[in-house]
Design goal:
single chain, Aminopeptidase, 3 domains, 7-stranded mixed β-sheet, globular
Length: 350
């Protein structure tokens, strides 16, 4: 099976404008036996998506002409987002693309520089401008249609807050949306009294189970889907299932990194993320574990931190979204700090 996968991956890497029918014809002419139809279909879709990226480059239009976020926009988005220093977890191309349907994201270019992205949450229209903050007149125009500006960074706030408030706009911290970031070494070592309970759970896991960690690649991809499907079955709800599934399908195109964890030779957990804040930070976008293995989340949290290169000083584990249980869980890992985010309203909300 692995040889068959490697054979297909070789063709994906070598092909440019490659016809899928021709590929299938060649594949049938080989002695490679493919037992996993689902994985083959995913691989074939990747060939088509690669063709789309290479030959269907969709230009982002200028405001007010918005377009839905497409995979082919990555070439325009990525360089600008890659320069951002604050480390806001949403401000990566993968973060925007994977949740484009959740928040109905659409994008346009700003007249001077940067982008404006609009979306909808809980029935309210919002917008954000990752690279620069618009002038007062433009903001006033935008607030005629949108309820608030979302995800203003801390560095933007320091530069622009006085100007905004003098113009009558209302600026507030968006605590439910703060990203938690942790010292990578702290999560990797779990030393000190603060991590006593975490260490006990990890040690119990290590004593009870035989485990293995492998990189996310084409040889482990199908195990990632298995974990995700089992996780949804356990939870009894979708959660971020579809975004996570697409992250697996497009991990190469979106330049995502991750690991698949095995317990007693069975797929048991996954982690997927990407570099952030000029590669000083690593953002964990998705983390899934099967609950039948006690301590699985504490284990994969530490194991993944241990295998990250030391060039990553911090791990961004994203926001708690105002969920009290999730907030408590994130705080027990003793965050180094928060990636603060702010909202801007035309006037103080009632």
């Amino acid at each position: 099976m692995i040889e068959s996968i490697q054979y297909i991956v070789w063709h994906i890497n070598k092909t440019t404008k490659y016809c899928v029918d021709t590929f299938i014809h060649k594949l049938r002419g080989t002695n490679h036996k493919l037992r996993d139809t689902n994985l083959v279909l995913i691989i074939l879709e990747r060939i088509e998506k690669k063709n789309d990226l290479q030959y269907s480059y969709l230009m982002i239009k200028f405001y007010p002409d918005f377009l839905p976020i497409e995979l082919s926009m990555k070439k325009e988005f990525h360089p600008a987002l890659n320069l951002l220093e604050d480390g806001i977890s949403e401000f990566t191309f993968a973060g925007l693309y994977l949740f484009r349907n959740t928040y109905h994201y659409e994008v346009a270019k700003l007249p001077d520089r940067g982008f404006i992205i609009r979306g909808i949450k809980n029935g309210e229209k919002f917008f954000f401008t990752p690279c620069c903050l618009p002038g007062n007149e433009f903001l006033t125009e935008l607030f005629k249609e949108y309820r608030y500006l979302k995800n203003m960074s801390e560095s933007q706030c320091k530069r622009e807050r006085i100007r905004l408030e003098m113009a009558g706009f209302y600026v507030m911290e968006d605590r439910d949306n703060f990203d938690y970031y942790y010292n990578r070494q702290d999560l990797a070592e779990l030393t000190g009294k603060a991590y006593h309970k975490k260490r006990n759970l990890v040690n119990a896991f290590l004593n009870n189970y035989h485990y293995e960690q492998r990189n996310l690649d084409m040889t482990t991809l199908n195990d990632g889907f298995y974990i995700l499907d089992k996780w949804r079955e356990e939870k009894g709800e979708d959660g971020d299932y579809y975004a996570n599934r697409e992250a697996l399908e497009l991990y190469n195109e979106l330049e995502l990194k991750g690991s698949i964890f095995y317990v007693e030779n069975e797929p048991a957990g996954l982690v997927i993320g990407e570099p952030l804040a000029k590669a000083r930070m690593f953002a964990v976008h998705f983390e899934k574990g099967l609950s039948k293995y006690k301590g699985i989340y504490q284990f994969i949290n530490q194991a993944f931190a241990q295998t990250l290169p030391r060039t990553y000083h911090y791990i961004n584990r994203e926001q708690d979204l105002g969920d009290p249980g999730l907030r408590q869980a994130k705080m027990t890992y003793r965050p180094q700090g928060f990636v603060k985010k702010y909202r801007v309203y035309q006037s103080k909300p009632v």
